[in-house]
Amino acid sequence: MDHTVVIPPDAQLAPLLRAYDRAVAAKHRQFFIGLAFMAGAFALACIGAEIDPGLFWEKLGNFTSYFNRLAHLDTGAVVLSDPAEWFWGLRRWTRLLGETLLMAYVGTVTGAVLAFCGCFLCSRNLVSSALLRIVIRRIFEICRTVPDIVFAMIFVAAFGLGALPGVMAIAIHTTGALGKLFSEVVENIDMKPVEGIAASGGSWVSQVRFGAVPQVLSNFASYAVLRFEINVRGAAVLGFVGAGGIGEELIVAIRKFFYSDVSAILVMIVVCVMLIDTLSEKLRHRLLAMDERP
Amino acid sequence: MTGHSPLRDAFLANRDRIADQHAALLDPGWRSRMGTIAIFGGGIVLYIASFFLLDMSLSNLIGGFRRLADIVGLMFPPTPETWSRFYLYLGAIGQTLSIAFLGTLLAAVLAVPMGFLAARNVVANRLVHLLARRSLDTIRSVDTLIWALIWINVVGLGPFAGVLAIMCSDFGAFGKLMSEAIETASDKPVEGILSTGGSRFAAIRFGVVPQILPVFASQILYYFESNTRSATIIGIVGAGGIGLHLSELIRVLEWQQAAFVILMVLVTVAAIDQISQRLRGAIIGRRR
Fold first, then answer.
1. Domain that holds residue B164
2. B121 in A contact zone (CB under 8 Å)
3. What ipTM did this prediction achieve?
4. Most buried among A96, A234, B11, B176, using CB within 10 Å?
5. CATH number of the CATH domain containing A192
6. Contact flag A150-B142 (C-beta cutoff 8 Å)
7. How many domains are contained in chain B?
C-alpha cells in the first residue's frame, strides 16, 4: 500500500491556510473571552465568599490533625485497636440509623404516591386544560426548589421535635422532584393504547389506568428507588435541625468534640449509604430490564 | 357509545376461544401474582409499622397541621421590614452564589486528575483504579452539611468553610462522572494520534479531552445549579450565605421575613436555572 501525499501548489494552498488560521484565531479569541469572563467571576466570588488563601494555608494543618483526632479514642489509642470501645454506642446508633432509613422510606413512599397522583394531571398528552397543568407544575416546582431541610425547620416549629417533621419534609421534597421526572416519563409514552381505550369509550381514569400506567410503572419504580437512595443521605442530616434520625447524635458529637464518636457515626452512615447505593443500582437495573421483556 | 360494530360482534362471538388462546396473558398464574402481592403487602405493612416505630400519631399530625396553618398565615405578606435588612439579605444571596460558584469550580479543577486516575482505559493498574473509585464513593456519600461541619472546625465559621464543603462533596461526584465520561469516550481519535506519532499526552489532549469537554461542561453547569440550592442551606450550620439568616429567622419565629427570604431563594434558583439551561444548550449545541 503506497500512499503519496499530494501537496497542492502554493497559490491553491495559501487561501486554505489563511482560512484555517482565521478559524483557529476565532476559536482562541472565544476561548480567551470566556476565560476572562470566568476570571472576573472568580475574583468577584472570592471577595463575596471571603476567601483567604493565607488562612487556608495556615489552618490546613488543622484539617489533617482533625482527621488524626477522629482516628483516636479519648485514651489516645488508635480507634481500630479497640473497636468495641470505638463503637460503644452501636446499639443506640443502629436504632437511630434504622430510624433514619424508615424516615427516608416513609417519606419516599408518600412523596412517590403524591407525585404519581399529580403527574398524570400535568402531562400535556393526557390533560388538555393548560391551567390545571400549570398549577400542578408550579406546585411541584416549589416543592422541589425549597430544600428539604428548610421545610424540616418550619415543620419542627409546627409539629415539634421528632421524626414526623423530617418525614413530611422528605415527602414534600420528593413529591416535587419525582413529580417532574414522572410527568416527563408520561409525556413520552406511546399514545396508541390510550387512544384505543378512548376510542372504545373508556373514561379518562381507565385511559390512564390501562393505557398509560402499564407503560410507565417500571420507570417510575426505578426513579422512586433512586430517590430513596438520595433521601437516605438527606435524612441523615435532617437531625441537625431536630427532625429525627441519626443527624442529631452526629451534630451533638461534632459540637461537643467527641471525636471518636464522630468517626464511628460517620463510618456507619457511609457504609449504610454505600450498601443502599449498591442494592438500589442492582434493583434499578432489574426494573429497567423488565421493560425490555417482550 | 353503544353502536354495534362488526368487530365487536366478531369478538363477542369468539370470546371464549380468544380467552383460551391468551390464557397466559389474562391470568398470569398464582406465582407471579403472589410475588406482586407479597412485595406490595410487605411495603404497605412496613409503611404502617413505621408510623408506630417513628412515634407519629394522628393527633400529633392534626395538631401540627393546625399550627402549620397558623404559621403559613403569619407568613403573609412576606416582607423584609426595612430596606437595610433587604440589602443584608441581598448580600447574603450574593455570598451564597459565590460559595456555589467557587465550590463547583474548585471541585471541577481538582476532579480532572482524579477522573483520569479512576478511568479504566487511562490507568491500567487495577489497584489504583479501584482505590480511586472507592475513595471517591466515600467522599460522595458524606453529605455537604457534614463536610461543612468538619471544615468549620478547621477554618472557622464563615463562607470559606462553605466553599470547602461544597468542593469536597462535589469532588466525589465529579470524579465519578469524569471517569465515566472518559471510559465511554471513543478510542479512535486516540489511536489516530498515536499512529501518526503523537505522544501519550497529545493523545489525551487532542483525542480524549475534546470528546469529554462538552459533557463535562454541561455537568458542571448542572451541578452549579444544584449547588446553589445546597449553598442556601449550609448556612444553617454556620458556613455562610443566606441559610444563616433563614435559620435565625425561623428560630426567632419572624415568619414574614423568613417567607421573604425563601421567596428570594426561589427567585435566585429559578434565575440561575434559566441561565445555566441556556448556557448548557449553547455548549452542547455548538459542539454537535
1. 83-287
2. no
3. 0.77
4. A234
5. 1.10.3720.10
6. no
7. 2
